[in-house]
């Protein structure tokens, strides 16, 4: 791993391994080592186009080329197409993902690799939509914002890796059940709202605050009222998660 690369070097003391362990507490050593690489890639990749940190934050076309380069690399690293080979890629951040992919592909079946690829593509496309809004200084309304935010928070990607982390193979009928998709959505909503409330202060330093608080706020509405509204939505997500989990348990 190229730890001297600036976007990677600045994260060396961030305890990313602890983050991976908190996300996947049941993972064994082999899996958690690979998932730590994945989490490192995710954090560093996101930093590259982040409004507060990234070199690509202000250049949509250059960021778009890098997103396309990343997705080409993903197909090879995840062995989605066995005969498909991407061009040489010396990007240090994508190099971290290649290390993860080599380990992941040792045990992950094709459908699991394809699912992760699709979820990463959803994440990257959502990041592009967010960057376009930020550069245009446009803050969307709450509902379209959350549709996009569910992608940018990366919750579905993280959920798709749970079977790998626990070294289990879910039956196809269960892994594609509507209730599983609903579970992932509620996880993403909870991640999004919690992160947005915690990161608002940092995001106020940017020219355009694309955040759930800004999206739901209306003239004359106090910050306390906004936070209360978001807390209520988090409670709804918890209840919806429990309902979907109970349905999944009964049907399995």
UniProtKB/TrEMBL annotation:
Drop me one GO molecular function for this one: terpene synthase activity
Q: What EC number(s) would the UniProt record show?
A: 4.2.3.-
Q: Which GO terms describe its biological process?
A: isoprenoid biosynthetic process
**Does the keyword field hold Cytoplasm?**
no
Co-factor(s): Mg(2+)
Q: Which family does it belong to?
A: Belongs to the terpene synthase family.
Annotated protein name in UniProt: Terpene synthase
**Origin species:** Fusarium musae
């Amino acid at each position: 791993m190229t730890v001297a690369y600036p976007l990677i070097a600045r994260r060396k003391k961030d305890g990313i391994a602890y983050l991976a362990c908190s996300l996947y507490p049941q993972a064994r050593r082999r899996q958690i080592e690979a998932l730590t690489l994945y989490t490192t890639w995710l954090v560093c990749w996101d930093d590259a186009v982040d409004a507060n940190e990234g070199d690509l934050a202000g250049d949509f076309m250059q960021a778009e080329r890098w997103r396309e380069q990343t997705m080409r690399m993903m197909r090879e690293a995840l062995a989605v197409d066995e005969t498909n080979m991407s061009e040489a890629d010396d990007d240090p951040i994508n190099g971290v993902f290649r290390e993860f992919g080599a380990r992941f592909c040792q045990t992950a079946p094709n459908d699991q690799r394809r699912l992760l690829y699709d979820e990463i593509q959803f994440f990257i496309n959502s990041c592009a939509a967010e960057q376009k809004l930020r550069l245009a200084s446009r803050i969307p309304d709450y509902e379209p914002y959350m549709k996009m935010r569910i992608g940018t928070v990366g919750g579905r990607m993280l959920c798709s890796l749970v079977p790998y982390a626990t070294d289990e193979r879910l039956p196809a009928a269960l892994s594609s059940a509507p209730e599983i998709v609903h579970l992932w959505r509620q996880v993403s909503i909870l991640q999004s709202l919690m992160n947005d409330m915690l990161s608002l202060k940092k995001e106020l330093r940017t020219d355009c605050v694309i955040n759930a608080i800004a999206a739901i706020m209306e003239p004359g509405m106090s910050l306390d009222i906004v936070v209360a509204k978001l807390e209520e939505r988090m409670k709804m997500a918890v209840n919806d998660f429990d309902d979907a989990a109970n349905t999944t348990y009964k049907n399995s």
